[in-house]
Amino acid sequence: MSHDAIVQAASDSDGGRPVFVLLLCFFLVMGVVQVVRPQLLWKANSRLQRGWVRNPEATEPTSKGYAMNRVVGVIFLGFVIWMLVQQF
């Protein structure tokens, strides 16, 4: 098998690309929420703590914790945008 045939076979899409792009768009929205309103993500996840933690409200991050969430969200957004650009 020639090198060109191997490259062609490796680059053929099996139809999974649109699903991957849709998943990346979902991650993009989650990253925007993490940067703009990280409190919404905490509220959504605090419900999952009810069986594990006595007082889930006591686990709310401080303002520094939310600031760190925003920093991580910006890094995450950069990574997701880079992956989306690589798809096209």
How would you describe this structure to a colleague?
- 72% of the residues lie in helices and 0% in strands.
- The mean pLDDT is 84.
- The chain has a domain of 41 residues.
- Helix 2 packs across helix 3 and helix 2 packs antiparallel against helix 4.
- The protein is mainly alpha-helical.
- The protein is built from 4 helices and no strands.
- It is elongated and about 60 Å long.
Order of helices and strands: HHHH
Strand content: under 5%
User: Could you tell me the mean pLDDT?
Assistant: 84
In which range does the helix fraction lie? over 70%
Oligomer: single chain
Distance between the termini: 28 Å
Number of strands: 0
Question: Which features does this protein show?
Answer:
88 residues, mainly alpha, 72% helix, 0% strand, elongated
Short précis:
The chain has 88 residues and is mainly alpha-helical.
